[in-house]
Write a structure and sequence with these properties.
There is one protein chain. By secondary structure, the protein is α/β, with parallel strands linked by helices. It has one domain: Rossmann fold. It has eight helices and eleven strands. Strands 3-2-1-4-5-11-10 form a seven-stranded mixed β-sheet, with helices on both faces. A two-stranded antiparallel ribbon has the order 6-7. Strands 8-9 form a two-stranded antiparallel sheet.
């Protein structure tokens, strides 16, 4: 992203504020690749993400959890980028604690264009739904991959963010609506509340953006939740059993929480 759109700037500002309480609450693992809240592991999904000896770019790395995991799994080089200084501060602390080699960089006005062009893997977990020009971003990310390289991305599932749970169940007002959507994100344990923004698009839009990169689509997954709840399911501000908790097994068995896409650059 070179961050230029006003909503994108607001997203970065919000993450600067909540980076530490977010990671304190959810305790995202750093010993394995994590594809999103209540998403089973890549192995459980049948998704092979070869890392050992590979050059990896973690785009929208947040607190650096997946970047650290890749380094621990034997990646030859890991570059992790994010526009939020707050997120990178968390990542820097965690990298130092893990004693691994991760090249942390802040995304600035130059965006991705100064990054190497020989990555074997580009990983982007729960970051691209904060980007308006996703076609342009995926095209630039594809240009950072070597021929035969792999892109793995996950985002909020478009169906889940198009509706709300209520008394009659899950109600979708308009699945095909496009544009910025705002919601309050609060951390009462830290006395913090911010307004976050994500850009809504359909599953078809995500597929079209990948194919226009151009990349070859290898897998499209709408995962059922894992048997055991992860910390996103257990550590909601509402509590694991509260009906306002979006990431419960009961709800995610009916409405997909995440969309996972695996694609390849073939030439």
């Amino acid at each position: 992203m070179a961050v230029s759109e006003p909503h994108e700037k607001a997203v970065v500002s919000a993450w600067n504020v909540i980076a530490t309480p977010y990671h304190d609450r959810y305790r995202i693992p750093t010993d394995r690749i994590h594809l999103g809240p209540m998403v089973p592991s890549p192995a459980e999904l049948g998704v092979e993400i070869p890392v050992k000896g590979r050059r990896v770019l973690d785009y929208g790395c947040g607190g650096g959890h997946n970047a650290i995991a890749c380094a621990r799994l034997g990646a030859g080089r890991v570059v992790a980028v994010d526009p939020s200084e707050g997120q990178l501060a968390v990542a820097s602390r965690l990298v130092a604690q893990a004693e691994v080699g991760v090249d942390l960089r802040r995304l600035d006005e130059r965006g991705i264009d100064d990054l190497p062009t020989d990555f074997d893997l580009v990983l982007s977990v729960y970051a691209l739904h904060f980007v308006e020009d996703v076609k342009g971003t995926l095209r630039r990310l594809a240009s950072r991959l070597r021929a035969g390289g792999t892109l793995v991305l996950s985002v909020d599932h478009p169906l889940r963010v198009s509706g709300e749970w209520g008394e009659p169940g899950f109600v979708v007002e308009d699945y095909f609506a496009h544009g910025w959507q705002s919601w309050p994100y609060d951390f009462p344990e830290a006395g913090l509340r911010v307004q976050l923004h994500r850009y809504r698009r359909t599953v078809g839009d995500w597929v079209a953006a990948v194919l226009a990169a151009p990349l070859v689509l290898r897998r499209l997954l709408e995962p059922l939740p894992p048997e055991r709840a992860d910390d996103f399911g257990l550590r909601s501000k509402y509590g694991a059993g509260d009906p306002r908790n979006v990431f419960t097994r009961q709800r995610l068995e009916k409405v997909p929480g995440s969309l996972v896409i695996v694609a390849e650059r073939t030439s």
